[in-house]
Write a structure and sequence with these properties.
about 300 residues, DNA polymerase, domain 1, 3-stranded antiparallel beta sheet, globular, 2 domains, hpI Integrase, Chain A, about 55% helix, mainly alpha
Length: about 300
């Protein structure tokens, strides 16, 4: 069977039988097509690929600067793909069966200080519809620690101003409830009353919260581009992305003494070890705490 047909069958299986999200399906598709392209460059037939071919592609990726985390994700996608093909009796052998994953190392995420977050938010002060909408989505990102894809998928009915919470659909379709906060509520109310009704067009979905200038649900790619543009305008020097606000949200809560389990719940992490990454403390703060509280500093 042709590789593309195998890939389509596999993605259909992930979508229908396992219920994976469109973002996850897109990641699987991207990683497997990258692998198929690598085999083609090596002039290796997909059905005849061996363990040494995968090792060669892994080494090539490493030498090309690809991170260990990215290579592990790629290998996980291939293992799942080959396992499916063997179970379906499309292939007889799984060349990933004996491969070991490269050792992962953890990098501390880039975070903004509270002062930098304030600078980013307070820089968006215009009264035009773009500024009001963008301030609302920035305040929501920082108030909730949401992923940008989760923000793009918000519906009007997901927000409850009376109780100050919103409903968020996370990875794998898992729902969680997150506090919204006064600043974010004010920004969203301003957007919903002054801007969103003007963005609605004939055929616009009535339930999508954040809309583009054309009245369509705003995509995560567009939100990403807007965020990076606003960060440049605020003269944030660090290399940041919308995910940096998620990192900053978690770090600032933990630094102020919020329980790790509560932060895990708000972030929607399945494993608390992922949340523990945010418990890092910079050396300067560690020294100040030691001097303040140790009986013999």
């Amino acid at each position: 069977m042709e590789p593309e047909k195998c890939l389509k069958l596999f993605l259909d299986h992930l979508s229908v039988e396992r219920g994976l999200s469109p973002n996850t399906l897109s990641a699987y598709r991207r990683d497997i097509r990258s692998y198929l392209a690598g085999l083609e460059r090596r002039k290796v037939s997909f059905g005849k690929a061996k363990q040494e071919d995968l090792l060669a592609l892994m080494m090539s990726a490493k030498e090309g600067g690809r991170s260990a985390r990215s290579i592990v994700r790629w290998l996980v996608a291939l293992r799942t793909f080959y396992r499916f093909l063997v179970v379906e009796q499309i292939l007889q052998e799984d060349p990933t069966r004996l491969l070991e994953s490269p050792r992962l190392w953890r990098h501390l995420p880039e975070v903004l200080s509270p002062e930098e977050v304030n600078r980013l938010l307070e820089n968006v002060t215009g009264r035009d519809w773009l500024s009001i909408r963008d301030r609302a989505f920035l305040e929501t990102l920082y108030a909730t620690g949401m992923r940008i894809s989760e923000l793009a998928g918000l519906k009007v009915g997901d927000v409850n101003f009376e109780v100050g919470f919103l409903r968020c659909m996370g990875k794998g379709g898992k729902e969680r409830i997150v506090p919204l906060g006064r600043k974010a509520i004010e920004a969203q109310k301003r957007y919903l009353t002054r801007v969103r009704p003007k963005l609605l067009r004939k055929g616009s979905p009535e339930n999508a919260l954040f809309l583009s200038r054309l009245g369509r649900p705003i995509s995560r790619q567009m939100l990403w581009r807007i965020f990076c543009s606003l960060a440049r305008e605020a003269r944030i020097k660090k290399p940041i992305s919308p995910h940096t606000l998620r990192h900053s949200f978690a770090t600032h809560l933990l630094e102020r003494g919020v329980d790790l389990r509560l932060v895990q719940e708000m972030l929607g992490h399945a494993d608390i070890s992922t949340t523990q990454l945010y418990t890092h403390v910079d050396r300067g703060r560690l020294k100040r705490v030691h001097e303040q509280y140790h009986p013999r500093p």
